[in-house]
Structures are given as C-alpha cells and as structure tokens.
Amino acid sequence: MELAEHLLTEMDRNQQRYCLENAIRLCDQVTNGYGFGEPYYIILDNDALNALQKPNIYPERYVALIILFRIIVKQGRDFRVLINPAIFYEFNGKILPQSETEFCNILDEITRTVSHTQVPAHTTGLSTFKQARSAIKSIEHDLKEIGAALIKIKERDWHIDCQRDSIIIPLSFIARENCPSVNIKYFSKFQTLRFLESVIESKIIHNKKNESYIRKYLRDEAAILKSKMLENKKGKITGLGDLSILSLCDMTRQFHNDENFTTIGVTFDVRLYGILSTHSSIVSHSDPILLGGETKESIGRKLGDFYERGQKLTEANKAATDFFREFADCLREMEWVKGAISSDLKRIFTD
C-alpha cells in the first residue's frame, strides 16, 4: 500500500471530500493549458511543494496531488514539473544560498520532493550556482522595487474624479496613468504593472470619499482579486511565487504567442486559482482589417490567420474537455480511491 492510499483510508468523510474536491480543482487548472503545445511544464506553488514534502502534515493536499499526477502519467503525454528561481527561492524560505554546496543541497531537496509526482523535474535559471544567485538577486531587486511602489500607492489619496468633459473614464485607464514606474529585472514587467494598477483600482473603489457610482458601477472584481496577490507586510513582500506563476502561466499570452510548449500553474490557493482562471479566457483574434487600405493578399492572410487561430482554439478546448472526462473516468476506476470513499461521496464525480 503506497502512502497516498494509506492516508486516504485513514481520513474521515469530510477530509476525503475535501481531498477529492481538491483533486478535481487541480485537474481543472491543468485543463486550462491542455491541448496547447507540448511539453506541458507544470509549476507547483510553494503550498503544493510543502504538501509533497510533508504528507503527514498536509495529507489531504498530498493525496490530491498524487491522484492528479497518477492520472496524468496514465495519459502518456509529455508532462514535466518545472522549478524556476522564484520557486526555489520561496522554497528555501527566501534565503539566498551562500555556497555551491548549499545551493546543490536545496535543489536536490526540491527534486526529491517533486519525485513523488513520478513526473520528470526540469529546471530553468538554475543550471549553476552562479546563475541561480544572479537570478535570485534580480528577484530581491524586484521585490524592493515593488515594495517601494506599493508604499507610494498606499500614501496617496485616491479620492478622484472619473469624469472628463462629461465622459466617465475607466478606472483601469486612470490606474495606468498614475501607476508608479518600476525597474523590473526578473519578473514580467507587464504583469507587475498590471498588479500595481489593480492595487490602485482597489484603492479607488474602497475610498469612501469617491462617488457611489465609482465604487459600485466601475468596480472590477478581477482587479480587486489581483490586488491582493502581493502584500507588503512589515517591509517584506509576500506572494512572490504567485507573481512568478502568473508571469509564466498566463494562457492568453501563451496562446497568442504561439508557444511550442505550455506552462501550467498548479496551486491550492483559491485566490491565485481565480486569478489564473481570469487569464485563461481566450478569444481568438487577428490583426484589424483596414477597410479601403488593404490588398486582397493582406486581407486573405489576416482572415487565414483568424481561421487558423480559431481552429487551434477549438481543438484545444476539445482536448481539454476530453482530458477532464478521462480524469473523471480514471478516478472512478482507481481501486484505492473507490475503496476509501463511501457511496454518497462518489456523487462528487457524477454531479
């Protein structure tokens, strides 16, 4: 009997329900990128790594992850777990390794932790001790930049007038105009600025001196959710792993950039899960056709591009749907799962 099977049988009904619902939620995250380019690089956040490293402390999460990866392995597709400097740094308690031996020991520990998934572990930005230190120093630089920007935003009074010449200006536009500049070296500058802009939007929405129409009708729940991704607590930025995962696992960006591989974030954090989901709603588009100023060849090329992207998206959606169905079928057939859950819990997979 393997550890996951033993842990599942030892759980009470509420723990089993929580565990299996988590497994389904993890599968849903994988479907966000399934059907795009292979290989699939799964990036586990720190909570997931902690669960794999300490199964007796986080049994429900550990079993949920094992269920997910056991079914992934059965698919026969090219899945890998990716370890990058941000994940490495957070796993090590946000401490910069001081020697090559220390660096290698930490990397070995993460690799052993990931080995529970039975999926190959790959690294990026961690080939050498020198490369890792350089990347982590860039991360620490970025955290200081983000921290300084958050202080500027916090200190400003966000009592504003959204009307200009009787036109209501979107809060996203106002946030972009007033966002502090940052010099980013490691993280995605685009995603960093979008995060800071979401913080400004949230500040405007929650400023009681602003008009009620601003606070009610211009409210963007997605921006408010994203504004909580990073926090400045006593001069220390928390949530750097979330920013790293969002930077790499934005499905909209990956689809439109025609990547020949796919990075997929896997997390137990409901907030990060929600943020990633908002970046997985993909709409196919092409370059605009300027009526009267386009050649037949140019119009044909753009229409062809639009059709090709539409086909790609349709095929990816079908593959994702098929994967989720296969996941549910495999789950029903896993003897050690069936043996642990009672009949009423089985409704989770038939609803």
Give the helix proportion (percent range).
55-70%
Taking pLDDT < 50 over at least 5 consecutive residues as the criterion, the unreliable ranges are 283-287
* Cα separation of the termini: 29 Å
Beta content: 5-15%
- Quickly give the structural class: alpha/beta
Helix count equals: 16
Output mean pLDDT.
Answer: 86
The structural domain count equals 1
Largest sheet: 4 strands, parallel
Adjacency order of strands in the biggest sheet = 3-2-1-8
What does this structure look like?
The protein is of the alpha/beta class. It has one domain. Helices cover 58% and strands 8% of the residues. A four-stranded parallel sheet has the order 3-2-1-8, with helices on both faces. Strands 4-5 form a two-stranded antiparallel ribbon. A two-stranded antiparallel sheet has the order 6-7.
List the helices and strands and how they pair.
Blueprint: H1 3-10, H2 13-31, E1 40-44, H3 46-53, H4 59-75, E2 79-83, H5 85-91, H6 100-114, E3 121-123, H7 129-155, E4 163-164, E5 167-168, H8 171-178, H9 189-205, H10 212-217, H11 221-227, E6 231-233, E7 236-238, H12 240-248, H13 251-256, E8 262-266, H14 270-278, H15 296-333, H16 335-338
Parallel strand pairs: 1-2, 1-8, 2-3
Antiparallel strand pairs: 4-5, 6-7
Helix pairs in contact: 1-4, 2-4, 2-15, 4-15, 7-9, 8-9, 9-11
